[in-house]
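Task: encode each sequence below as structure tokens.

Item 1
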Amino acid sequence: MTILRSSFIEGEVIENKTWTERLYSLRIRVELMPFKAGQFVRLQLPVGGEVVTKSYSLINAPDEPDLEVFFNTVPNGRLSNALAALRGGDRIEVSQPAQGFFVLDEIPETRHLWMFATGTGLGPYISILKTADVWKRFEKVVLVHGVPLMKELAYADLIGTWQQKYPDQFRFVSCVTREQNSAGLHGRMTDLFVNDVLEKQIGLEISKDNSHVMLCGNHNMIKDMKALLAERGMSRHLRHKPGQVTTEQYY
């Protein structure tokens, strides 16, 4: 994530939703400056006598009043564990304005938009899918979410509302690696892509002629998917050199 100059303002925690023992959604009331769906802010807290800061993508749409982030705790993660301990009424500092280029404005014209996420990399897609623009621009919108366990398929109810509202336009498939998946596919999304299982499940093929692929999540998924897409002639999209792949690395 590219970080530009910004300032911090104080916000109030409204809710800290626990999805699992390591997954949380933090909702904060703060005076947000205008932003684009897919952008991120930095959250800042004093931890053990030191101020700790980290970037988190926004879950909320630009027209929603409260800020929301989706995050996971990690062993010895000072900020993530401090965030997990926050409760309603607690104070936290938030950077403004939001930043980042993982937004629809940076996606060239194409028919099909594919969104691949691992874990909390789902976050920016939720914000994007809440906006009207994504449904106006693309004939097909595909969301693929990879997690280790079924219980980590967060925001399933919200995703289900888009499946009901846009049955011909929206496709969603979950990929669960450590247990059988009654709601989707079992295995790593990269393996399922190589074996042609993923595209058959969705009923669409990724092609450089009609598709743009967004990748958000862990380094290995992004690296592997970029290599696989390169075999189809698809390259990273740059302003000065248009391509078919846009990435945002989380961890």
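Item 2
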Amino acid sequence: MWRWLSVALVVAETLWALSGCATLEETRKNATEKPQLVVWWNKGWYREEDAVMQKIAKEFEGQYEVEVDLTFTAQEDLSRKITAGLIARRVPDVAFSFFNDWLVVPKYGWDDKLADVSDVINELKPRYNEKMLQAGYVFNNTTKKRSYYGIPIEAQTMHIHYWRDLLKEAGMEDDPTKIPMKWDEYWVYWKKVQDALRKKDPAKYGKLYGIGMTMSTRASDTLHNFEMALLSFGGELIDPNGKVVADQPKNREAIIKTLKWFGELFTSGYVPPDATNWTDADNNAAFHNKRVVMTPNPSQSIPAAQFFNKDDPNKNNYFHNMATIEWPNGPDGKKARYLSAVKTVVIPKDSTNQKLAKEFMKFVLEPKRFLDYIRAANGRWFPAFTDISKDPFWRSGHRGPKGEKDLHIPVATTIFLDRENKVFEHWKHPANSQVYDENVWGKAMARIAIDKWTPEKAADEAIDQMKTIFAQYR
């Protein structure tokens, strides 16, 4: 994962904030006739998302007689911008980044730099999927208590995408309901596809791999993969109070088993050799290029890209050639347990328009408006609100030109609503965000795959690193 919290980068971004962000105050001074709300918003993956948000902002301007200075920024740049603004105290009134839940809410809630939004949460609480509220409920080290410093709006979780046409060509069952879901059988199935295709046509499939598993120190996908596997092996890293429990015998053993499994998966030759150097986009690219048969991915970005594929106007890939299925049952035979990353909006404590900012967020999150916004993302995100998730779109998804069923969006809905699903645990303690940011578990995988360490040695180093990071917070 990107290491945005390094001292050098923070200093550089803070200097940028002191200069560039001065325009925030200049803009407000120029708005003499109407109050102005400055909103930094994550640029959507699709133009439709941004268009809906612009429409909502215009509606808010008309109803509240204010000006909304709405700007869209790509997620990597926006997270740096928000971090720099909070440090320099040159902030917008509303900030939404897809990485707020990882990098902003836990750390800057702890540092008392975010406004308490409990009043907004309490007003919206009857509508919320209550499990997702935890993402915004963090500890403030100044007040010495927890409160809501983030407004959850949408979420992503783990899916497995695979090419049905490649399974057919290998002479194997491609129906999602026929894929074996027992742990060992599931992973062996994809290995068999690779073996069958390479045997059938070595020239065409000699560089095809059965499993597109991201295992690098550069990608946040690695963390999703590791923690999903750790859940499957019954392990925990921190307890409900934010205390490290990774070193407890039961959890250490689960971590060792998880790392051993990843190591064997890689060294067996069924994962692309460069997967230890992938970024978050690389497993998507490998899948779209049919370099891998299947890949785990913590969002619906892969099928969404195929839905909008201009080279496939009939959407054959989306409706016929690929499918989405669940993570397999754990080695213990239990149904897969899931983790969700819940995207949150923050209102900086230094905002001069906190009341108006809260009104804006309540306005955005009114059912009809927010349904329009989140549906424009084409199923990439799942709503944090039960009334929105009851819309038929989430259970049925899209319909094909000939009435074909959607094999993607309804799977995500099942995971969110019908499976055991908990929020990523960075909300429990800001140190856990640093563990993710430093990709401690990706480094442990690399120790095994590249440095040839034993799983036990790699696990103990990672656990010690985790404990050291947590010990820095007092």
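Check on item 2: The two ends are 25 Å apart (CA to CA). Residues 159-297+438-471 form a domain with the D-Maltodextrin-Binding Protein; domain 2 fold (CATH 3.40.190.10).
End of task.
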